[in-house]
């Protein structure tokens, strides 16, 4: 059966389709009803079924693959590599769960996890899943304020934290941030469990609050903790969106639907069978980290690589060296990361034996064609873009090489994933637009398994944020897209980022795409700036592959960018101004903060900066604006 036929069945007969897919995971008690949809837009999958994410990710594999590597945690920050088999993972997760029990964590309690990419972060997540506690992983690079916000939202029984993170060899002690976050938060957790890596010189402990993991771990020894069987729709975890368009939203995920989506996607999208190796370069704090560093590969019986460190340490070939060493089959990264590598010699890739590597998947941001071509030429493997959101939890638009490999069309993440009924509609009329016409990308509810259940403790915000944009009940992705005559969908940017130039609607992404086509450009952000005559005009902020302060070179680059845009998109898209900067402001998850650039360019306030990565990059923009294009 080809894609079209299976996809049609997945959306036209969802109950029959998902009942079949559900067999891929272990159910302690099978679901009594596949889909319940009597309170739209809320839906429940596999109602009455009892299962557990940890059991599916760990225990279930012991019979066949106890001695196979489950997790390899590599750190080029601490220079420690930890290889963990499924049997060892089982032991560590049980021990961690026993420690959680000692600290009185019960089913339904929330646990905030504030750790970098280290093995214990995975043990902690799975231990929570085992006992039915709801984890909320907070990206280790976030500072105290973000941590406090997420603590208050989750109201956790426990905070689990590393003693320190490390970035580019610089140790970042977490303890001061934990103390500050607990002081700021209204619902400071009663207990804090510190997993010490020996990076931070021991700070005084807060008596009665702080516990040391190693001490408790030694005390529980080889304790076994029984799996808590959860109803499919109980919450498994909370995870926040990146905050690119405003205040992050706390996505609530379920148990059964998510497990089924993970199992299916490992097979159909990532084509990674039990025993094979997957390497996702994400941080565990992001959606990709949850789904394709932890739950997906482990539920799939694969080996998962977890990497802590810069992609350039010890050199720009580190990721490919790891692919070679561990025989990685499926690699998953982001366009942002590849653009970083693109500044370095392609030989860092080519010198490695990548014969086991079958695919490179990229997601998280638009994959511009020049970057796609560059990495494709370097690897000679399919480079597969896929589009999703923290909310969806797994790809919404993708190719399905494990099922039916459609040809890659650069610039497009492909087709609706199984179970997703998607269309591109006119913002005003709500009508489906014709081929190659722009509109808003929407999902027809009920949302498929794996997608969010709601916004944590805020059903109303769930309805308002996603389902109240059109007359018809539709989930708005808030992204702007076109679909070509063959059904490939292209993302043009956020609906907020659409620029209206003299009545022409242009996606920021279209213009960024063509600017990136100019050879000297490393990365570009395009924003719309108010203009008296045209309503709005496109303005470019770009970094160059080779940094130069030479005015002549910069103005030649700016001219080149203008020309290439006019050649591709016509004079209407001609950038009114081009600013060359040394860095672009991004979120900690690597997404361009266009709204902040735009606000500065219009003399406004840059808005919520809680997820801003590098404050210097914003300063760069400020400086560029005052210096002039
Ligand atoms: P927030 O919702 O808080 O504003 P965010 O949307 O950036 O933040 P994420 O869930 O991390 O939070 O990102 C999802 C968004 O990333 C998508 O809505 C889309 O705009 C973009 N995106 C993800 N994958 C792709 C892709 N393959 N191509 C184009 N855009 C993508
Ligand atoms: Mg979003």
UniProtKB/TrEMBL annotation:
InterPro entries: ACAS_N, AMP-bd_C, AMP-bd_C_sf, AMP-binding_CS, AMP-dep_synth/lig_dom, ANL_N_sf, Propion_PrpE. This is Propionate--CoA ligase. Keywords: ATP-binding, Ligase, Nucleotide-binding. PROSITE patterns: AMP_BINDING. GO terms for biological process: propionate catabolic process, 2-methylcitrate cycle. It holds the Pfam family ACAS_N. Residues 510-591 form the AMP-binding enzyme C-terminal domain. The keyword RNA-binding does not apply. Transmembrane segments: none annotated. Belongs to the ATP-dependent AMP-binding enzyme family. Residues 59-446 form the AMP-dependent synthetase/ligase domain. The keyword ATP-binding applies. One of its GO terms (molecular function) is propionate-CoA ligase activity. Residues 3-57 form the Acetyl-coenzyme A synthetase N-terminal domain.
